[in-house]
Amino acid sequence: MSRGLEILSAGPQVTVEDEGRTGYLAFGLARGGAADTLALAEGAALLGQGPGLAALEMAGFGGTFAVTEPLRIALTGAPMRAALDGAPLVWNASHLVLPGQRLSIGAVEAGVYGYLSLGGGIATEPVLGSRSVHLTAGLGRCVAAGDRLPIGPDGGAGVGLRLAAGGHAGGGVVRVLPTAQTSMFSPEDRARFEATVFRREAAGNRQGVRLAGGAPFATSGQRSLLSEIVEPGDIQMTGEGVPYVLLAECQTMGGYPRIASVVPDDLPIVAQAAPGDMLRFRFVTLEEAVADHRARRPGGKLRVATRRLLRDPREMADLLSYQLISGVTDGGGEE
Amino acid sequence: MEQAGQAPPRILRMGLSGILVQFSDRLDGPANRRSLDFGARLAAALPEGVEEVAPSLGGVYLRLDPLRADHGAIEARLRGLVDGEASDAVASARRWTIPAVFGGTSGPDLDAVAAAVDLGAKEALADLVTQSLRVMAIGFAPGLPYMGILPERWDIPRKAGLTPKVPQGGIVVAVRQAIIFPTDTPTGWWHVGQTGFRGFRPGAAEPFLLRPGDEVRLRPVGQEELRALNARDPEGGGALVEAVLA
Predict the structure, then answer these.
(1) Are A28 and B141 within 8 A, CB to CB?
(2) Please, which of A42, A114, A332, B93 could form a disulfide with A80 given CB 3.0 to 4.6 Å?
(3) 3.40.50.720, 2.40.100.10, 1.10.10.10, 1.10.1740.10: CATH of A171-295
(4) Predicted confidence (pLDDT) at residue A303 exceeds the cutoff of 80
């Protein structure tokens, strides 16, 4: 039997996602891919594999899973209640799942999108150069109970790593850069935009999220704007003057003025802001953003710091807390 | 930050990895053709650090790789290119004829549109289908064509409210343009007709059917005829394409 992940049950929106497909902007297809690309890269780092492999993205709720062969997994992104045969699993860490065991991932505890990465990656058939399900474009569908996802050969080994820094859910300060229409907004409105604490509203999906806070933001000539290319991270001011931040599956053309564009390295904070979470925007210079973008990628690859999950005396407090909760330590450090 | 103060064509920064070469901020045929021509020339020889080029209605968008792109050098290069050449020739030379049913349940907004353009339903339809539409840009959704430019009288605003779903193949009009939706789409545009044409076919060798510069004529047919065409040609709805001389 070939390597596979069996879906015993799945939440309402569990999709296969990788880094998305680029090169189709001129054809109207946004890159799509993981809503939180940082969490995807973190999952890959915990498994010691390249960031281009596909993982399962779980919006709000996971599912229950079984494996046909021993599989290394990593859990990243929005923390969810996870257990292996009933024993709690540490989030933002890598583990081993054996045939016969049942992996259950429940509701999100903070944030929006959780990720289940697999050693070797999900090996569904790529369409237009990517395995990403693109719901708005009708490319692929959500996984459902009874599905069996093929998993590629695992070139790595070892589990029991965790991320050194834990997560980016819950909102926060997000860096932004000017865009083509930023100067259509008055200096006062731009300053007010930076000073306003916005709240993520309930309306939101992989296409974008709506924010609330402050008086409406308006430009002159807002309604007669010619549609232009838009990209994930762009902050549109809709007809009502409230910000709408575009995410991975956004449309590729838009006619609303954009007050700013989120620095891609901070877009995961927006994607992981759950309804009610607070966001603030801060303008930075292009030079600053480029320098930081490069600093995070020595040698062209995003740096993700990891630590041993167990066996490190410095981690004992952490270990004990998990023992207190579950009464069982995670044996994932053993191969 | 006062980027918009330049005279057109403007070169505008958009976020970390975007640059827009804007030929016009208004709907304008020559500026659109110039955008398409400039986009094609850039795509044929991508400047260092540029990953992707996408022409749109009035400009060309460039996506850079911020790890290796030098914004200043690329902008200087673009400035030289836009100042150096100016062609608004139409690159593509294809003509599509796409059968469509108008009005009734297939185009519930046709009467309202006719009133808005100050014609009877029959006359408005005749006016629309005798136009030779040009695909000005593909965007918003995969394979979705912005077609125009329709005569002045078709400069009708979008609807006040949103139609929750115009089905795949639906023809909508507003602001001197027409669109054929490649997938079911919520919209504020006016739904006047229906085709069986699928502009996005993910599994096909050529997934995106229409290209900027293509000419499109809508051929009115009856409900029965369209049904028969769709049965014979489930993805194309009887659309024909021919090469024409530019």
Answers:
(1) yes
(2) A114
(3) 2.40.100.10
(4) yes
